[in-house]
Amino acid sequence: FLAVIYSTAINHVTLFLILLYMGNYFLYSAPPLRFKRIPFFSKLFLSLNSLMLVILGYYFVTGFTSLFPVEVILFFVVGYTAAVNFIDLKDYEGDREAGIKTIPTILGLRKGKLVIGSFFPILYTVAILYLKNNLLIPVAAGAGILQFLLINRRNYDERLVFVVYLLSLLFFIIYLLTHPLPM
């Protein structure tokens, strides 16, 4: 409720994106749709909400949304949707017993880890290719391979995956702040 009031006080674009964000989470979790039960759609809704916040940040910096890069939209819709499936690994046993369809419960834990882990080196490398800085490709590929190895460890620890993910995100943000892309 407060989000609607505060976003109304800012402007109509902020209100629209916040309402869209809230509506997405409703569709994600509320019956009868509950998209969180459907393997692809569950993570797509999470990705779209993250994308909306990025678009909102872009709007605050530039004052418009019309020139928001299509590549970033594709990055979230495809790449982030794929990679964020790692959150299902820690709940594998419970999801399997409850009959919840996730990549690990559909493919099995071992194959699911291989598939989910493989998304990271691809995603990290594609992100750097977008920046058109070939010097960073080994760093991105290395971080992606580290994510793959952490996901496929015998004693999986989601915290380590989050640490590498958040450090990578921090590095990416610092890079963007110090090397702005041409508009």
Written as H for each helix and E for each strand, in order along the chain, the element string is HHHHHHHHH
Helix content: over 70%
Oligomer: single chain
Distance between the termini: 35 Å
Largest sheet: none
Mean pLDDT: 91
- The low-confidence runs, each spanning 5 or more residues with pLDDT under 50, are none
Strand content: under 5%
Tally of strands: 0
Number of helices: 9
Overall radius of gyration: 18 Å
- What's the overall geometry? flat
Number of domains: 2
Structural class: mainly alpha
Summarize the structure.
Helix content is 74%, strand content 0%. It contains nine helices and no strands.
Structure description:
The structure is a single chain. 74% of the residues lie in helices and 0% in strands. The chain has 9 helices and no strands. It folds into 2 domains: 1-68, no CATH class; 69-183. By secondary structure, it is mainly α. The protein has helices at 2-10, 12-29, 39-62, 70-83, 92-98, 103-107, 109-131, 137-151, 158-178.
